[in-house]
Design brief:
Length: 472
């Protein structure tokens, strides 16, 4: 817990050094609303910047939510001029943005504000954005998360350092977290600096304001040290969550490809729900997909992983489980249709068009080439009637390892996941399938001692360049 005998500046300095808040920060953008907390943050960071060699730039965003908002902007601009601190201002129509983005006013205001702060930081070449969140904000955030049913991650409350929303390559820092609101007022008074009061902070329609003005005073009657107890709980959660982050970091995929990431199911089964959510968010960033997770979806994922098959959508990210593998893909809940493959006779030997690909058929084994698609060997005596290629059909059967079996069971035994089966092609004689082929799949029942035909799926050959004829 902070030592209240130290000055606010010294407490912030020690906190910043412990958390390495100003590491490699030649310039810091400070979000200044005009209230006591943000003004105190600007004053303290200006002093720390002079001592530690970084420059401070103020940034103010006008949400147009209050009649006094223009006055706040003018106040911040005048204050920065008096302090000789560069200042950037921005504004946005939050109600209109909330309507267009179909979100609440507070959420839209936060989104637009952080978009502006990211713009300001990029424009200024700053290494971090600092906000004026205090220990009181920290306590209220922990309570808010508990009320909303948060896990361990939420109970950590406000972190000293976090990725800036909307631009995770930038750091969001909270240097005055060790200070209480009373401390920020004292800092402003000691500097002879006025600050703005936001009347909406007293309105009880917002959950955070009710927690501040109703719930916390009641809790303090039960325990005068409840703020310190909540801050201690947040610190414990932060320490515990480090092991969750480590386990998520260690869980790495078996394969990455454009648009999808594949894990062994056992890798995901070995993670708790908090670590799984971190993993989903990490891979969603790689896939450029939005994650919309809640407890119900996380429970559904747990059931799918336990069952070993199924699909769960997390907004723009889909998780599909099959044959011991779990694929994460940038997807939607819309039904995915496999490309149509018209049934047609196969040229043996030769090339037959199969949708956007071709089927290559040969009477001798294909030359060894590690980069070539796999080939299937089909005994000649298994082919009855004209050989045809077509899409796989439910209930298809084929002779495999001496037994007539369902193709679906063969694919499962061969660990061909469901997301690859829609692109597979069946080669069929008169009564049954004799081979199943795909970009990475070649299943048939031929051996070296058999008289076989050989088949594989390949991309179509490149188009020939147009013939050029020069006039003479």
């Amino acid at each position: 817990m902070p030592d209240d005998t130290l000055s606010p500046l010294e407490r912030v300095r020690r906190f910043a050094e412990r958390e390495q808040l100003f590491r490699s920060a030649g310039k810091v953008v400070v979000a200044v609303s005009g209230g006591a907390d943000s003004v105190a943050a600007l004053l303290l960071l200006r002093d720390l910047g002079e001592a530690h060699g970084f420059e401070v730039v103020a940034a103010h965003f006008d949400h147009h939510l209050r009649h006094e908002s223009a006055g706040d902007r003018d106040f911040v601009s005048d204050l920065c001029e008096r302090l000789d601190v560069p200042c950037m201002t921005g504004e946005g129509d939050v109600p209109l943005a909330a309507e267009e983005m179909r979100m609440g006013i507070e959420e839209a205001a936060r989104k637009l504000r952080y978009q502006f702060l990211a713009f300001a930081a990029e424009r200024q070449g700053a290494g971090a954005v600092a906000t004026g969140h205090t220990a009181d904000d920290h306590v209220e955030t922990v309570l808010h998360h508990i009320v909303r049913g948060s896990g361990v991650r939420g109970i950590r409350g406000m972190l000293p350092v976090a990725p800036l929303p909307g631009m995770p390559s930038l750091r969001l820092i909270r240097p005055i977290l060790p200070l209480a609101r009373a401390d920020t007022v004292a800092v402003c008074n000691a500097a002879g600096i006025d600050y703005r009061e936001d009347a909406t902070n007293a309105e009880l329609h917002a959950t955070r304001n009710r927690l501040r003005h109703t719930v916390l005073p009641q809790l303090r009657e039960e325990n005068p040290s409840v703020d310190a107890a909540i801050l201690g709980l947040a610190e414990s959660a932060r320490e515990l969550f480090r092991s969750v982050e480590r386990s998520a970091d260690l869980a790495q995929p078996s394969d990455r490809a454009p648009g999808s990431v594949v894990f062994e199911v056992e890798t995901l089964r070995g993670l708790g729900s908090e670590a799984r959510l971190l993993l989903l968010e990490r891979e969603a960033a790689f896939l450029k997909a939005e994650v919309d997770a809640n407890r119900t979806r996380l429970r559904n994922l747990d059931e799918v992983l336990s069952k070993g098959s199924g699909r769960v959508a997390f907004g723009g990210l889909a998780v599909e489980v099959s044959v011991g593998l779990a694929r994460l893909s940038a997807d939607s809940d819309e039904e995915r249709n496999a490309p149509e493959i018209p049934e047609q006779f196969v040229n043996i030997p030769g090339i037959t068009r199969a949708g956007e690909r071709v089927l290559q058929a040969a009477t001798d084994p294909f030359p060894d080439d590690a980069a070539a698609p796999p080939a299937a060997a089909v005994p000649a005596d298994r082919i009855e009637g004209a050989l045809r290629l077509r899409a796989l059909a439910p209930g298809d059967r084929m002779q495999y390892w001496g037994y007539r079996r369902k193709v679906s069971g063969i694919l499962k035994s061969a660990r061909v996941p469901t997301w690859e089966r829609g692109d597979l092609i069946a080669l069929a004689g008169r009564d049954q399938v004799v081979a199943v082929l795909g970009a990475n799949v070649a299943i048939a029942d031929g051996g070296e001692e058999d008289d076989c035909y050989y088949f594989r799926i390949a991309p179509p050959p490149p188009a020939s360049p147009p013939l050029r004829v020069d006039g003479g």
